Amino acid sequence: MGPYPTHPGPPPAFTTRRRPVGAVDLNPAPGAAPQPPPPGAYRVPARYGYPETPVETTTRLRPVPSGRQRWRAALAAACVVLGLGLIGGAATGAWLTGDSSAEPTRTPYATGRTVWHSVPVDTLFPRTLKGTGAGPGGTNRTWIRLSVAPDSDCSQGLDPLLRTTLRSVGCERMVRATYTDVTRSSVTTVGVVVTEADEAGMQALSTRFTEQKLAGRKDLMPRTYAPEGTLAAGFGDRQRASWTVRPLTEIPAVVFAVSGFADARTVPEPQPADAATGTGADTDIAQAGLGHEAKGIADRVERGLRKTVTDLVEPPA
Fold this sequence. Notes:
The chain crosses the membrane at residues 73-96. By secondary structure, the chain is an alpha+beta fold.
């Protein structure tokens, strides 16, 4: 008798169970030698005399591929890639530029150093300047612009000694223009030297000019700009009559002006604007108002420059 007893048939009280689809058949083939069941297989109870397949033994169903699932997976992957790219770009931009929500800080010195090329020339040197009370005895003056010189370095508008004096603050750029009064009796060149210095450097230069009285030295007079074909064509070094040079401390700039007679006459003894506009000044230069010309035009160009820089730093509401 083999290890697996056989019986003629199942007892009458039992019916044969139907084998689930996909169940493993453990019955040996007819005529085949009995084989031990594989490990983990269900063992046939000896008392019933027939093999029984457990109802819970079924085959694993394979998932049915879906084109819609592949489309959704591709879309999700694309969204992930796009999102990572945007996040990475924002992080890189923030790292390179700092806080992107913060506006660049504007200061009078940073703005003043670029104003010579960032605003229209008519803003720096208006076509017409009004000098209310700027003439001798408080008379009104009006000046008309003859020409604007191309921007240049300081070698064209300053004598060597004046360039040496300004060496401590550097020369970023220089812009100039020449005016005449409405009577066409005088000509005046006004200019702005944009420096490379910070506030401490400009303050030191201003203090030096004051303590050493450099503004009144004849060897520190600025040069003229004599545009050809205009009333100022003959306005050269020997025609310089009165001048002013003033370092500013609120912005990196030095404003200067030099005046002379429109008829190109030679002036043997130039006179500083402060002296020519002083009480009791009776020189030809003072009586002709050339000191007032240089000082009045320099004042208005300086005021316009300060206002322009202020408006750029703190725009009006």
